Amino acid sequence: MDKLIIIMPVYNEGEYIYNNVKTVDDLLTQAGIAHQFLLVDDGSKDQSWQEMCRLSQDYPHVSLIRLSRNFGKEAALCAALEHAGGDAVLVMDSDLQHPPSYIPEMVRLWKEEGYEVVEGVKADRGKESLGSKLAATLFYRTFRKSTGIDIGAASDFKLLDRKVLEAWRQLPEKSTFFRGLSAWVGFKRYAMPFKVAPRAGGE
């Protein structure tokens, strides 16, 4: 049976990470999707690591990586992608703003329709300040003009087949941008609109 690795970068999610992972685990188990978790603690200053350790003790299919300090989400993603096994990986936020209810359809598109990248595309940006929305618009417009690749509505909520992950690992870049590089490598892609969910808690 094909195995899906769920990758979650974690930063200061100690109050919620246990229940959030359990929520995703329950959903995938009910859907009959073989899976494991790979959680990366990006130098959290709260009890995130302790809660992650509790998860790995209670759930043998939860693996952990701990970074020595806060390097940022991109570095945390890279660490996980370099270590992930499985037949495909799915990257999602640990605060569940990437709704887990979409995962079974993403897996179906991968398994049954042969899509090698299933990427979540934001139908809206959720609750963001006007300043954040304007900054994002300016950044993605500049990125599109510089690279010719439009990722304005893209997100880090993605399923990547093993062959896509291997191609990503071969890229020589030292300063990585997951959203941009995962678009650049190509492969058969499906863009799936989703609504950004409220955070499961915190800010």
What keywords describe this structure?
7-stranded mixed beta sheet, 203 residues, single chain, alpha/beta, 7 helices
Question: What would you say this structure looks like, in words?
Answer:
With 203 residues, the chain is α/β, with parallel strands linked by helices. Helices cover 39% and strands 21% of the residues. It has helices spanning 17-30, 48-58, 73-83, 103-113, 130-147, 162-169, 178-184; strands at 4-10, 35-41, 62-66, 88-91, 117-122, 154-161, 189-194. A seven-stranded mixed beta sheet has the order 3-2-1-4-6-5-7, with helices on both faces. The longest helix has 18 residues, at 130-147. It is globular and about 40 Å long. The mean pLDDT is 84.
What would a concise description of this structure say?
This protein is an alpha/beta fold. Helices cover 39% and strands 21% of the residues.
- Class from helix and strand fractions: alpha/beta
The biggest sheet amounts to:
7 strands, mixed
Continuous helix count: 7
Radius of gyration: 16 Å
Q: Please give the order of strands in the largest beta sheet.
A: 3-2-1-4-6-5-7
Quick one: overall form? Answer: globular
Helix proportion: 25-40%
Q: Could you give the order of the helices and strands?
A: EHEHEHEHEHEHHE
Beta strands, count: 7
Share of residues in strands? 15-25%
Low-confidence stretches: none
**Overall pLDDT level:** 84
In quaternary terms, these chains amount to single chain
Distance between the ends: 38 Å
